[in-house]
Known about the structure:
By secondary structure, the chain is an alpha+beta fold.
Amino acid sequence: MDILAGHGTRNSTADMSLPTITPPPPYAARYGYSKTKALSTLRAILAAPRIVTGYLGTGEGARLTCLNTLLALRKPGLTMRYYLTFGRFPNYLNPKGQTEKVQWRKLFDRNLLFAVMCDKLAARDYAAARVPLLCFPKLHWSGTDPDRIPLENIPLPYVIKPNNRSGEHLFVLRREDFDKAAIMRQCRAWMAAKPFGRRVGEWGYSQVPTRIQVEAFLSDGKDLAPPANYELFVYHGRVGAIYYSVPRLGNRPRRRGLFTTDWQVIAADRWRVKGFFPFDDDIPKPYNLGALVQAAERIAAELDFARVDLFNLDGEIYLSEVTLYPSSGFSIWVPKNAAPSARPPRDLDEQFGALWTLPSLPFWTCVRRGLLGG
């Protein structure tokens, strides 16, 4: 089947994962702007000595060292989180690895297409226009007034989420999950919250007005098990790697793997500050792998880098989401069976980073955006 052929679209989008506890609102939503700013200022003061001495040892030229240090002091939370995750400071102005280039994008890139991709509702329409046979979970409702959601009339199972946040969902899978007061409370909190991604600099989300959406929950069986997720990393219109994951549920084990576009195993594990996540190498190749690759490449064709998340359910391909800031740049792949270390090896991070050529921006535009924002 050529998924790029044909006409018309199925109904609406969703990004889906295992049911998780919705994280609390950010500091700004809980305590107000003044306390958030005070905490940021205190963090900058405390981090300044380590940041300054850290950049003096990077080996960059005097100008880059000075400006990287100024940017790091301007963004102490982002800088120290990167340092505490990887054991090194990010090179904002001359990035090499993929994780550093995600930080560069957050600080400097203001591509207007980002606002489309960070809006789950707009991304649905964008993808549907480019991949006509792409499928989407049924959209039951979307809007800005939670009181207007016809909760009693929506068939189970379904998921409620904001259109401009990542990893925040309410799952209503069975009757016992239905708690109207809790749903209303969470939806109102989403509508009142500060723009998602502001704390870690994910500019694209800040450009999207908040809406609530209610969509059908996709499942590959009677036990409401989420389907396998295919995350395709697309560089300049070509898929460079495919990350496969299926969550643990009941007797079904969790499985993860990293593959090339012809399903050859990439000998890697995933590294986060919490530790290693070993990958499997015996995951069966999907029979419609070519269609998955075609769909992702068509959706991300106008971007220099994006991760396109797809579900493959009964031979039909569903869009989950398009991610511009994967893991916010705080997770990397490392060579298989790498020695445990507080400072993970950079090999694969830089190999995949080499596939991504950043857009050309005037040097002082980067400095202005990094230091002054906007």
